[in-house]
Amino acid sequence: xxxxxxxxxxxxxxxxxxxxxxxxxxxxxxxxxxxxxxxxxxxxxxxxxxxxxxxxxxxxxxxxxxxxxxxxxxxxxxxxxxxxxxxxxxxxxxxxxxxxxxxxxxxxxxxxxxxxxxxxxxxxxxxxxxxxxxxxxxxxxxxxxxxxxxxxxxxxxxxxxxxxxxxxxxxxxxxxxxxxxxxxxxxxxxxxxxxxxxxxxxxxxxxxxx
Length: 210
Prior knowledge:
- The protein is α+β, with helices and mostly antiparallel strands and 210 residues long.
- The chain is 22% helix and 28% strand.
- It is built from 6 helices and 13 strands.
- The strands form 3 sheets. Strands 3-6-8-9-10-11 form a 6-stranded mixed sheet, with helices on one face.
- The longest helix has 17 residues, at 41-57.
- It is globular, with a radius of gyration of 18 Å.
- The model has no long low-confidence stretch (mean pLDDT 90).
């Protein structure tokens, strides 16, 4: 997410009318429209890897991975009186089980994801961990929320339980993550296939260069 396009505040209906006619993707947050920044090669590769691994494991089940061009609506149902509350976002990977529920007849805004995965970038990490996660928790259907780093092998997983959200993480390429909501296992070697991480400079190297 980047800064709002303008200082104008839009209703949900105005946003959807503009967005469905736009070539670029934009997210909506409480009346403001944000143009989505382009993704890096690593970001795109990780998204493809995640979608491939999850889709393959979901064959023959009632669950499916959906395109990241599908929006998710978080918040109360908009009223016809210029409603300006809520979040409309484009998760990097999302999964729905059973019959998808949509915002309207366009069938491009999902209401009942069971799993959402965001691939982090420097410009969006704080938002994905903070405001966006807070909004996603309003989705009654959501059981798991995963954050995948693109700068190092690291996956954070938030899982909904009866008494709140629980956190776990893995940071080793030899490790795997179990997504209990859809009974899938992600090996980090598969998630980070084709990814080259920035080399860490040793203190000795720094001293030799100074």
